Amino acid sequence: MDFAFVNLPVPFYVPFVFFAALVASFLLIPLAQRAGARLGFIDHPRQGEIQKIPVVRTGGYAIFAAFTFAIALSLPLVPRFPGEYPRLLGLLLGAAIIMPVAFVDDLKRLGPMPQLAAQVLVALVAISFGIAIDSVASPFGGIIPLPLWITVPFTLLWFVGMINTLNFIDTMDGLAGGITVIAALVLFARALYLGQYSIAVLSISLAGACLGFLPYNLHPARVFMGTSGSMFLGYALAVLAVIGGAKIATTLVVLSIPILDTALVIARRVLAGRSPFKGGDSAHLPHRMLAVGLPQQVIVFLLYALSLILGYLALALSATQKMVALGVMSLILGGAIVFVAYRSR
To answer: How far is CA 31 from the centre of its chain?
Structure first.
């Protein structure tokens, strides 16, 4: 695909909404940090983690607030079809449901099952508002509609998978937030290319809210995003990939590194007889890179660079080429899981 980025028309409200989200996030993070310290929202170092000192874990609430603020500002500026408002409400309502669950987890650390139940609940909220994967692109051209009995479980799997992908990759200062910025910018460019300006605004708002958080989260981090951040970002990216269509494969390509890492970590834990959602080990790719002597800053920016390359490929490849790339990625993942199983034996 010939992707002429410089020729993409950018409406006047796009930079306005982006900077609104960025500035709001940058100003709200210190307030969330102070509130978290007073309320006891402290992330203490645990076995198998890179973290060495206690850090407040309330950055995600400020990211969500900044995103919501930017979307509210965009409402009178961005032309939308009437059918888009229910999906926008579903996005915000699902994210709002995440916040009280995250509040409890950030304070008391919920177990895997309550977290999984919450993820399924927000996915069902999204589906009830029309945010669902009800069709797929055929490799031979055209669209294949999916029946309801496939749409619902497929969409549930997509949402739970994306939420846990962002949750699992949030293991190193600045990593989850930076990768989300890259993924959101790729989805923004894709929506802009398709002329979906109202959806592009959602993506650029998410990028701005995360970018305002990063100065406080890069190593050494002064504040973590916590469960509120990782769950919200995973949920938001899952929604943005579904609404407007034609972005599932794009999202899978740009996030292929954290997706592969998540799948391998789950495989290792299951084969070891542990809960796939219970941390406390050093199975993640960033941990292994740290173990060979690379500094945190180098690891994070190296993964940023790889994500940028994958993001470019996600935009430049045709639909058929993306299907081939995802097939190759699946083969690599399958081979890696077989290797892990063999090593475990």
So the answer is: 24
Residue 41 in contact with residue 106, Cβ under 8 Å? yes
Cβ–Cβ under 8 Å, residues 240 and 54: no
pTM for the model stands at 0.91
Instruction: Tell me the pLDDT tens digit for each residue of 14-65.
Output: 999 999 999 999 999 999 999 999 998 988 877 667 777 889 999 999 999 9
Instruction: With beta carbons less than 8 A apart as the criterion, state whether 60 and 102 touch.
Output: yes
Amino acid at 103: F
Instruction: Look at phi and psi of residue 15 and say left if phi exceeds 0, alpha if psi is from -120 to 50, else beta.
Output: alpha
pLDDT of residue 2: 45
Angle, in degrees to the nearest 10, between helices 296-316 and 175-193: 20
Q: Which of 61-65, 271-275, 328-332, 341-345 has the lowest mean pLDDT?
A: 341-345
Is the preceding omega at residue 220 within 30 degrees of 0, hence cis? Answer: yes
Contacts 24+ apart (CB under 8 A), 327-335: 329/252, 329/256, 329/260, 332/260, 333/260, 333/263, 333/264
As a whole number of angstroms, the distance between CA 67 and CA 295 comes to 31
Contact 213, 228 (CB under 8 A): no
Give the DSSP H/E element, type plus range, for residue 26: helix 13-39
Q: Where are the alpha helices (DSSP H) in 52-196?
A: 59-74, 84-108, 112-128, 148-169, 175-193
Structure tokens at 120: 């399924």
Question: How far is Cα 150 from Cα 103, in angstroms, rounded to an integer?
Answer: 33
Give the 3-state secondary structure percentages of the chain, helix then strand then coil, rounded to 5: 70, 5, 25
Distances (CA, A) of 143 to 134, 245, 320, 341: 10, 11, 13, 37
In whole angstroms, give the CA distance from residue 87 to residue 238.
13
Give the model confidence (pLDDT) of 186-201 as tens digits. 999 999 888 889 999 9
Paired residues of 137 in beta bridges:
143
